[in-house]
Design brief:
Helices cover 23% and strands 26% of the residues. The protein has helices at residues 4-21, 137-142, 154-163, 170-184, 199-205, 212-225, 277-286, 301-306, and strands spanning 42-51, 59-64, 73-82, 85-90, 97-103, 111-120, 186-187, 209-210, 230-237, 259-267, 271-275, 315-319, 341-344, 347-348, 359-366. The chain has a five-stranded antiparallel beta sheet, with no helix packed on it.
Length: 367
């Protein structure tokens, strides 16, 4: 039986032969462009509103707000309205900011609405140039540590060493891990939300299907296992893709379900470098009715190329936090914070079922 990697390699050979013979294979779409390039900033107001329809006891709500300031994102002000008590707070460790709202037991219809302004722009790495980039040693060490869902020993280390066999430089290792993720994992639409990111369980069971919080977490974990600093960014798609890819954008009027996480790896000659192998898998699985099985497909090839080192700026990052203890929460730590979260007398609400406590997210671009 062929492995997924062998299948992709054989598909590449078949596609080349088909092109030489002058006919198209089923599922091979017309060539598409996907070339995000750094340029002008875009400004968005992002609004999240939560309504608790049947509150029980004292209820609490946590809403992430943009907490990242970098060469590709500027997190500006946030403003809130509510009929409860409210404060801006953070996880106290990573700097992940959030609005915390608390409602008395006698409040019949708790609500909170937060609007955050953020500026974003495209990213792309110029692989032809090399510039030494210095980063704080403690920061780099922090982003090689294990977390509850991203261990760096055992089967994770074994897999990382196998994936990077023969790679010598940090860029070669990052490339090998990116290619391994694309070749061996796949998008599984039935996974709830963005996935859980439990990479040890994925590798132990051999079930390598998942969504962005699974696949990009696996990229981060494999990088960290071979001492490449890497991190996830948990965020939200804000607007349609400028390149026509339906699955790589969001409907600004209704962004419930538009959550998406991305990754970065630190390369000595590049600094922090954008990565998103999970979106390659998403295009392969969901951009067309047919599941595309090769990165040589003209619909997939430009995405596979561009997302190693870049991404489109129609997305914001809330934070890069792991193992988050929510302030004033009575529940367990969160593996990550990307969705609105609420707790009541019966415990924590299901963030993946927003109708249970009714939240809506929208974005408006400021021109």
């Amino acid at each position: 039986m062929k492995t997924r990697r062998q299948f992709i390699q054989s598909s590449v050979s078949l596609s080349v032969s088909a092109a030489a013979a002058g006919f198209a294979l089923p599922g091979f779409a017309q060539a598409r462009t996907f070339e995000p390039k750094p340029g002008d900033w875009r400004t968005f107001d992002v609004t999240t509103r939560v309504d608790l329809l049947a509150p029980k006891g004292v209820t609490r709500v946590w809403l992430p707000v943009p907490s990242v300031d970098s060469e590709w994102q500027s997190s500006l002000d946030s403003r809130s309205i509510t009929n409860g008590k409210i404060q801006m707070t953070s996880d106290g460790v990573s700097g992940a900011r959030m609005v915390y709202a608390e409602f008395d037991a006698n409040e019949p219809a708790p609500y909170v609405e937060v609007t955050s302004r953020v500026r974003t722009r495209n990213r792309a790495t110029d692989w032809r140039s090399r510039t030494a980039v210095n980063e704080d040693a403690d920061t780099l060490a922090y982003h090689t540590r294990p977390t509850a869902l991203i261990p760096t020993d055992g089967i994770v280390l074994k897999t990382a060493l196998e994936a990077t066999r023969g790679a010598r430089t940090d860029e070669e290792k990052a490339r090998a891990i990116y290619d391994w993720i694309v070749a061996n994992t796949y998008r599984e639409p039935k996974v709830r939300g963005c996935g859980e990111g439990d990479i040890k369980s994925m590798l132990e069971t051999g079930n390598l299907g998942g969504k962005c919080a699974d696949l990009n977490a696996l990229f981060v974990g494999l990088c960290r296992a071979v001492k490449l600093p890497a991190r996830d960014f948990y965020g939200l798609r804000l607007a349609p893709s400028a390149f026509g890819y339906r699955e790589l954008g969001g409907n600004s009027a209704s962004l419930k379900g538009a959550q998406h996480c991305r990754a970065e790896v630190y390369l000595q000659a590049r600094g922090w470098t954008a990565m998103d192998p999970a979106d390659v898998a998403k295009v392969m699985r969901q951009e067309t009715p047919e599941w595309i099985k090769t990165t040589q497909n003209p619909l997939v090839a430009p995405v596979n190329k561009a997302l190693f080192g870049g991404w489109e700026g129609n997305w914001l990052a809330w934070n890069s936090a792991h193992d988050v203890k929510l302030p004033n929460s009575r529940g367990p730590k969160m593996g990550f914070v990307m969705y609105p979260i609420a707790e009541g007398a019966d415990g924590r609400y299901d963030s993946y079922a927003p109708d249970d406590f009714k939240y809506q997210i929208s974005a408006r671009e400021i021109v």
